[in-house]
Amino acid sequence: TINKETHSFQTEVKQLLNLMIHSLYSNKEIFLRELISNAADAADKLRFEALSHDDYFGNDSDLKIRITTDKEAGTLTIADNGIGMTRDDVMNNLGTIARSGTSEFLKAMTKEQQADSNLIGQFGVGFYSAFIVADEVEVRSRHAGAKPEDAVSWVSRGEGEFSIESIEKSDRGTEIILHLKDDEKEFLEPWRLRSIIGKYSDHISLPVEMEKVDMAAPEGEDKEEDEVVVPEFEAVNKATALWTRAKSEINEEEYKEFYKHISHDYGEPLTWAHNKVEGKQEYTSLLYLPKKAPFDLWNRDKPRGVKLYVQRVFIMDDAEQFLPVYLRMVRGVLDSNDLPLNVSREILQDSAATTSLRNACVKRVLSMLEKLAKSQKEDYQEFWNEFGSVLKEGLAEDHSNREKVAGLMRFASTNQDSDEQSVSLKDYIERMKPEQDKIYYIVADNYATAKSSPHLEIYRKKGVEVLLMTDRVDEWAMGHLTEFDGKKLQAVTHGELDLGGLESEEDKKAVEKATEEKSDLIEKIKTQLADKVSEVKISARLDESPACVVASDGGMSIQMARMMKAAGQ
Ligand code: ADP
Ligand code: MG
Question: Where are the annotated segments for A (predicted)?
Fold first, then answer.
């Protein structure tokens, strides 16, 4: 045909395809999960778009996914009657343009020197997994708003190029036809397909149908010559959105599968919280904590947040209004009965319902973390090691929950001999000396520097524990935490040595006496360092070292000063 065009994949897409096919081979059945997942997303999008386009459903309003096989042709087809794609959609989504994460992804994979299948899911590359089992993939699609003659076909062998052409398609939606490789013909077996669908798709809210196996059909009975056999279909999954089901009827596997579906993470979640709330506010939330950080965790602007549904209608992905930035690792679903169906990001921005849902979600997540910290210490430690420094941002960002967030913090400490961040403020307080009234900490560039800082000498001598902080965010975050559980937090590098009740009269006298006796020396040093320091003092701070630099109270710390200098300020 005249309108047939052939395009090359971008280099990155080619590389990605290659990597993916080889690294996911041992888990090849996931291609079906990915394609069903896309079909389910397409149904969600149609339901949403139909709210503002009356004609989108036409006379075909039973949304479903159908899986059929053709043994002779060696093809497996996944068909949906969802939103469908226009020619432009196909070009953008399956074509030349590498999705935003692709190059970072390739970098991460190359660095690890091994294909980590955990990474793959995060990059919106699910569709390409079809090439693990197929040597040719054909996509036929018609957008809900398009006429039958305005449908489009996309064909590729996954090697370097694809062709795209206009076709006619009688029904709405997308058909993905996989020409299976010779040694992948197992995916033509109904029992095999049914078991994969059962495993991966029970939680999908629409039926995944396969042809009925008619056990009752008498064997060997001749069919009439002109009899047309209309295949009958049946759903092979449970077909109810997971979060709408009763908790007691959902098992762990199902929760985990659902997580993979919504998060694009091939790994397992660490834990989750599923809550149905009725009354003044009506919503269901299902929130997950991942085990592993995504490659772009540090990008505070990356898409984040929960999948938002209103009365079971999908509204948007990455609704960031319901969780603060410091909880950006959380994945999940929020289904509200209070928001209007025509809600937009703009409306969400300043709606009272959003605020109360957000407060509720934050509470859920924090209590999920508290529970984990209390009853599954090792899991919590795993979470902390992965996401702790993100959670710390909450000290600065979430004033109303600061005490709670502070309770979740874990630090390295002089009380232990490793740099593992595992000491909570509560642990610290329990070990405080009877006459001690402050929580002491030091912020430094790294663990070794923190541990061997001369500022710690006096505390070590007195047997007082000091928290050792070495994360980039510590300086900023701790600046917002002045108190915990009624105890003041004090950076040992700042201000007058203030040991509170720990200081003995003897120490004080000794300092006073030395200050008097050595006034000449102090003056001399002051003149020498006139433009470098604002004050020179005798102090009980040190035990072994002769001198150290101290930041003034409320002044910039040495770390901060160094950072500013590095930034050219
Ligand atoms: P992701 O699902 O993470 O976006 P995929 O590689 O699985 O990434 O799919 C790429 C895109 O192709 C989807 O975002 C969607 O826009 C489009 N797409 C894939 N399958 C379908 C389908 N069955 N119906 C409509 N659009 C689809
Ligand atoms: Mg997908």
Answer: 1-345
Q: Is 82 in the pocket of ligand 1 (CB under 6 A)?
A: yes
Q: Where are the beta strands (DSSP E) in 428-564?
A: 438-443, 467-469, 483-484, 487-491
d(CA 365, CA 335): 16
- Mean of the pLDDT values across residues 336-350? 85
- CB 124 near ligand 1, within 6 Å: yes
Task: Identify which of 12, 36, 38, 152 to mutate to test ligand 1's pocket (most ligand atoms within 8 A of the CB).
Answer: 38
The predicted-structure confidence for 226-279, as pLDDT tens digits, reads as follows: 677 788 999 999 889 999 999 999 999 999 999 988 888 878 999 999 999 998
In this predicted complex, what is the ipTM?
0.99
Could you give the CA distance from residue 204 to residue 276 in angstroms, rounded to a whole number?
19
Contacts 24+ apart (CB under 8 A), 267-270: 267/118, 267/291, 267/292, 269/331, 270/372, 270/379, 270/382, 270/383
Angle, in degrees to the nearest 10, between helices 11-23 and 102-112: 50
Cα-to-chain-centroid distance, residue 234: 35
pLDDT score of 153: 97
Please give the angle made by the CA atoms of 503, 506 and 511, to the nearest 5 degrees: 85
Q: Is the pLDDT of residue 80 over 80?
A: yes
Quick one: which H or E segment has residue 408? helix 402-408
Q: How far apart are CA 357 and CA 336, in angstroms?
A: 9
Residue 555 assigned as binding residue? no
Return the residue matching tokens 């809900």.
Answer: 144
Task: At 337, list the tokens.
Answer: 């009965």
Three-class SS state of 528 = helix
In this structure, what DSSP letter does residue 76 have?
A: E
Contact 85 CB / ligand 1 (< 6 Å): yes
Residue that has been written with the tokens 């508290």 in this structure: 370
Judging by DSSP bridges, how do beta strands 134-142 and 173-180 pair with one another?
Answer: antiparallel
Please provide residue 543's backbone torsions phi and psi, each rounded to the nearest 5 degrees: -115, -45
Q: State the amino acid at position 283 in one-letter form.
A: Y
pTM for this predicted structure: 0.79
The rounded Cα 297 to chain-centroid distance in angstroms is: 8
Task: Give residue-wise pLDDT tens across range 173-197.
Answer: 999 999 999 999 999 999 999 999 9
Calculate mean pLDDT across residues 97-110: 63
Ligand 1 centroid distance, CA of 191 (Å): 26
Using most ligand atoms within 8 A of CB, pick from 127, 141, 314 the residue to mutate for ligand 1.
Answer: 127
104 Cβ contact list (under 8 Å, min separation 6): 295, 296
CA of 125 to the centre of ligand 2 (A): 7
Phi-psi region of 495 (alpha: psi -120 to 50; beta: other; left: phi over 0): left
